[in-house]
């Protein structure tokens, strides 16, 4: 069962990944929190992704934070659904790529 990725939009450009994590940690375990940045400039794209492995905690965070104010901006928080095909699943695709080394 893949962990649920949470999309967080309408972020202030000054928000860091650490602040994003701190926003979600009161609701439960945060495996990863990352503000997405432009590769060339390193500037924030204004949204981030949060990985919460426990579905019930992720649901609670989405319910509490969607539409809430953070840095005077109303956040958009919802489940990020990756575009996956059955072939991707069998190829070991997904969020962090395959790799069956050992």
Architecture overview:
It is a single chain. This protein is of the alpha+beta class and 102 residues long. The chain has one domain: RRM (RNA recognition motif) domain (Alpha-Beta Plaits), CATH 3.30.70.330. 24% of the residues lie in helices and 29% in strands. The chain contains three helices and six strands. The protein has helices spanning 17-24, 55-65, 86-90; strands at 4-9, 32-37, 44-52, 69-70, 73-74, 76-80. Strands 2-3-1-6 form a four-stranded antiparallel β-sheet, covered by helices on one side. A hairpin with a 2-residue loop joins strand 4 and strand 5. The model has no long low-confidence stretch (mean pLDDT 86).
Give the helix/strand layout.
Elements: E1 4-9, H1 17-24, E2 32-37, E3 44-52, H2 55-65, E4 69-70, E5 73-74, E6 76-80, H3 86-90
Antiparallel strand pairs: 1-3, 1-6, 2-3, 4-5
In a nutshell, what does this entry contain?
It is built from 3 helices and 6 strands, in the order E-H-E-E-H-E-E-E-H.
Keywords:
single chain, Alpha-Beta Plaits, 4-stranded antiparallel beta sheet
**Poorly predicted parts:** none
Number of helices: 3
Number of strands: 6
| Helix and strand run | EHEEHEEEH
